[in-house]
Design goal:
The chain has 341 residues and is α/β, with parallel strands linked by helices. The protein is built from twelve helices and twelve strands. The longest helix is centred in the middle third of the chain and has 16 residues. This is LacI family transcriptional regulator. InterPro entries: HTH_LacI (IPR000843), LacI/GalR-like_sensor (IPR046335), Lambda_DNA-bd_dom_sf (IPR010982), Peripla_BP_I (IPR028082).
Length: 341
């Protein structure tokens, strides 16, 4: 097995620097850190985790709290999968491992408000990242208020060592409506996310604000709630198509729902964008692959992971909870809102 001295020699640094890369990566400049980690992978060097834990009094483990009840498909959503990859990559670059603390709804009746706190302490985790996939119970609130470093994605949290990361959901929705208006659309409907989720509520607010600013009618029958998934988008679009006066454009508050909406429009014998223009939200991988290509509001998925990793590691190392971060969104224009030339 490769040793720390061998790794240091190959990288042209001291063993102490190698130790800092794995124990306190934030104090090593990025170029040196990347070189040491790359070389370590090449020669198969693995730090002694037990020794490292004893020396630093840290486990270098961050828990991921995410409801994986098989009856709730949140963990299968491609947006969350891309965030998870970004989070794991960002934590690995800082010398931390990620441990999923998932629970099944089948045992929810047995859980207490302290279940997650006990689990974090039992595993000696240094901090926690929480993903809001639409369920939020008292045990998560207790965790954020426990003093354990916590970062929540897409949901505000309270606690002396807790913060959250989210996107500019309302601003992204305004971009979508403005784009459709610029393309000559006036009867603009929306398929929302679940109203009880922050992204769902904020994207609806952005849609409503921009419709009012542009002087466009805000029709109650042009607002249909979805669930962020394919089937929900399909069902919601069918409701809009059944209206006596159908819309000429739809802002869909999630790309998976938008793909379902595309299918419903095709089944009705209509064309996108000629009959109905569509704009989604997220910019998941499939958005660029479906015909005619989905115009969408892109979230910074890698940025989610990086921001969450930076915040939780900073708190682990003694920093105060940083202020919430709101990541910008951008419009990606494809064929679903612009007729082919």
């Amino acid at each position: 097995m490769a040793t720390i001295r061998e790794l240091a020699r190959l990288c042209g640094v001291s063993p102490a620097t190698v130790s800092r890369v794995f124990n306190n990566p934030e104090v090593v400049n990025a170029k040196t850190r990347e070189q040491v980690l790359r070389t370590a992978r090449q020669i198969g060097y693995l730090p002694n985790e037990s020794a490292r834990t004893l020396a630093t009094k840290k486990s270098f483990m961050v828990g991921l709290v995410w409801d994986t009840d098989h009856r709730r498909p949140g963990w299968r959503h491609p947006f969350f999968q891309e965030i998870l990859i970004g989070l794991k990559t960002a934590l690995s670059g800082r010398g931390y491992h990620l441990l999923m603390l998932a629970t099944s709804g089948d045992t929810s009746g047995e859980r207490t408000e302290d279940a997650y706190v006990r689990s974090v302490r039992r595993h000696n985790l240094d901090g926690v990242v929480m993903i809001d996939s639409g369920t939020w119970d008292p045990s998560l609130r207790r965790l954020s208020e426990s003093g354990i470093p916590c970062v929540s994605l897409d949901r505000p949290v309270e606690g002396s060592r807790a913060t959250y990361v989210t996107s500019d959901n309302a601003g992204g929705a305004r971009l979508a409506v403005q784009h459709l208006h610029e393309r000559g659309r006036r009867a603009i409907a929306t398929i929302t996310g679940p109203a009880h989720t922050r992204p769902g509520a904020e994207r609806l607010r952005g849609y409503q604000d921009e419709m009012s600013r542009l002087g466009l009618p805000r029709r109650p029958d042009f607002v249909v709630e979805g669930d962020f998934y394919l089937s929900g988008g399909h069902a919601a679009m069918r409701r809009l198509l059944d209206a006596d006066d159908r819309p000429d454009a739809v802002f869909v508050a999630g790309d998976e729902m938008a793909v379902g909406a595309l299918r419903a429009i095709g089944e009705a014998g209509l064309k996108v964008p000629e009959d109905i223009a569509l704009v989604g939200f997220d910019d998941i991988e499939v958005a660029a692959l479906v015909p005619p290509g989905l115009t969408t509001v892109a979230q910074d998925k890698a940025g989610f992971g990086t921001a969450a990793a930076e915040a939780v590691v900073a708190m682990i190392n003694g920093a105060e909870a940083p202020p919430p971060q709101i990541l910008p969104t951008t419009l990606v224009v494809r064929g679903s809102s612009t007729p082919p030339l």
